[in-house]
Amino acid sequence: MIYKDWAQWSSLLILLALVMVLVVQCAPGIGGGEGEGEGEGEGEGEGVSDARLQELATALLVDFETADADGNDGLSFTEAQTIDPNITQAEFDALDTGGNGEISNAELLEFVLVGGEGEGEGEGEISVIPCDLENPCPTGLMCSGFVEGESFCVVAVLIRGKVLAVVDDAPIPDAQVQALDINGTPVGSTVVTDESGRYALEVPKLRDVDGEFQDAVYTLRVQAQGFQEFPTALRPALPIDVAFALEEEIPVSTVTDERLQILATELSANFDAADADDNGSLSFAEVQTTVDADITQEEFDLVDTGGNGQISSTELDAFLLLVAGGEGEGEGEGEGEGEGEGEGEGEGEGEGEGEVVEPVPTRLVVESPLTTVKLIALPGDTSLLGRISGTILADANAGILMLADDGVSEALKGFSDSEGAYTIFNVPAGTYSVEGYAIGAQLTPVEAIVEESQETSGVDITESLNPLSTISGTVQFVNAPDAEFTSVILAVESTFNETSARGTAPPGLRVGNVTGEFIFEDVPDGMYVVLAAFENDLLMRDPDQTIGGTAIVRVEVPDPDEGNEIILPTGFKITQALEVFGPGIDSPEEVFTPTPVFEWEDDSSEDGYELHIFDAFGDEIWSADVPKFTGGGNVTHTYAGPDLEIGMYYQFRVFSFHEDLSGRTPISATEDLRGVFFYLGNESPAP
User: Fold this and answer.
1) Which of 39, 61, 389, 446 has its CA 20 to 30 Å from the CA of residue 77?
2) Taking the CB of residue 55, how many other CB atoms lie within 10 A of it?
3) pTM of this structure
4) Which of 23-32, 150-159, 182-191, 293-302 has the lowest mean pLDDT?
């Protein structure tokens, strides 16, 4: 680099001075110098309370970047004074656990999240840092609401896992992974799997208003091009409890100084040619395309000392100076004055020898079989499928059910993340109405045109001024002696599969603990199917459609006649379901034979049964009539349909019926979500 005026030379000299200070204070540095030292000292000191240290640490964390004037990711005593002029040297030293004269972000987190080791009067309290969109959390924390109260910065837990193809465990790159809280709301940001199918997703470990950690349970949602989304009605997501997170050390970089020096030299020599957009800095793509095709993201990040995703010429110059330091080891001895530790407000003296021990950075991690998600490949050639992406430009924009509806086929689904961004995968070429649904979210549909194998991006959704609606109705329990309560959902009609009688309910459009009357509030405009007893509660909607209150109910919102206050004209009749005894009693179950045996409860008043097998896409692949059962015990029937597809999920449904000259009348059935099984081609496990 050639410097043409005094301003540039003076800037370089100042930078060089700072670098030399860092090299002296922070050895061993990037250049590889190592040193050991011993010292003895006597001193007096006043104890510092945990409460004061947490108060200071919180204040320093909030304004860390502003106070870090030299941008070296550490606060000197002078820089700390700009935040709290009353900070004492004893307090600073207590926070500087590494003892290098600089307080790092990680050292401050130690006091905010765990509490320091200060001694003195007063008890430590949990420090809280408020946060919102305008006031993000410091590094190492993430913004999330307490169990009660407003949003605060909380501990981040890493959920780590893989996304694989169910048929052969092949990794699926570029899959989008979200974490959902107990209310179905996305938390953190959506992440994308790497070439090995791995992902790492941050979620909060919540505290209550007293600062105590609470149980935090999450589920995963995954989407990928060429694969069915997860979860589905047949494949529920199992809960992941971060209370079982384990602490692990953050791995140290294995990138060598020599490699970084070579890289920085190449970038400096080819800077102007690589700076394609002429913005005075280099992006990862510019470096990879023009200078070094083999550069890794880790290497780029190490040279990008400012951490803004761009490498400037100033960063390169400083980096070359830093890595030019010599290598060697040395020992030194010295005497000095130090401050001892005191208890309470008393004074104390002490002597001792010691060495600076750098704290080992750690993080909380959850990784288990539950964090590995296996996806089912879509049938046929998926290479021509496109996708739709955009952002929801509304106050309520997280966890929205996004649909691409062509008015003919079942709508394609996606969900928005915590920042309102969404992608709908696997969209055939055509014209679509893109719509968003969630309780309390009134959004304006937009049109999107998708071409083969292309992504239609920038399909942004805005808020509508239309009022939200209310839907109310009743359920009636018939022939259900064990019934206590049930649930009702609103499924968007364009997602409803007539064959399997299943549909997708937007977040929040479910009412539980229904014993008679029910009501949905804040329902957005659209066409819905009302489904009662759509969960595993040993109940189901009465299938006998020869009597009132059993037909599938569709409702338009707002109603052309009633407007925004809609009362369903007839109640739902709910009856006892036929119990399932396998496979799939409570959750999806692997079968170890291509001809599984299905077992269910005898109705005792039936004239016969209809057995139906559906695949994961809601298509019926086989059915059979099963004669009246009179032998006592449970009814069984062996599968005799087409070969089961390895890796596919299936469900068996059974309907009991009366039969006379007028035809068949269904009287009961197995539940909507039980009887799910899958076949992987494995042999029967050992007993």
Assistant:
1) 39
2) 18
3) 0.67
4) 23-32
Rounded CA-CA distance 51/91 in Å is 12
Q: What is the pLDDT of residues 95-112, one digit of tens each?
A: 888 788 898 876 776 666
What values do phi and psi take at 50, rounded to 5?
-60, -40
Is the distance from CB of 494 to CB of 406 less than 8 angstroms? no
User: Is the alpha carbon torsion for 181, 472, 464, 405 positive or negative?
Assistant: positive
Residue 580 exposed, middle or buried by CB count within 10 Å (0-12, 13-18, 19+): buried
* CA distances for 549 relative to 513, 544, 636, angstroms: 19, 9, 31
From 222, 160, 206, 142, select the one nearest 366 (Cα to Cα).
Answer: 160
**pLDDT, tens digit, for every residue of 215-248?**
678 999 999 999 999 998 888 888 898 877 887 7
Number of CB atoms found within 10 A of residue 279's CB = 11
Closest residue by Cα to residue 387 from 418, 430, 446, 417: 430
On whether the CB atoms of residues 422 and 389 are closer than 8 A, the answer is: yes
Of residues 526 and 419, more confidence is placed in: 526
User: What is the 8-class DSSP label of residue 370?
Assistant: G
Calpha distance 564→576 (Å, rounded): 33
Q: For 378-417, how does the pLDDT look when each residue is reduced to its tens digit (9 = 90+)?
A: 999 999 999 999 999 998 898 899 999 999 999 999 999 8
600: β partners: 580, 635
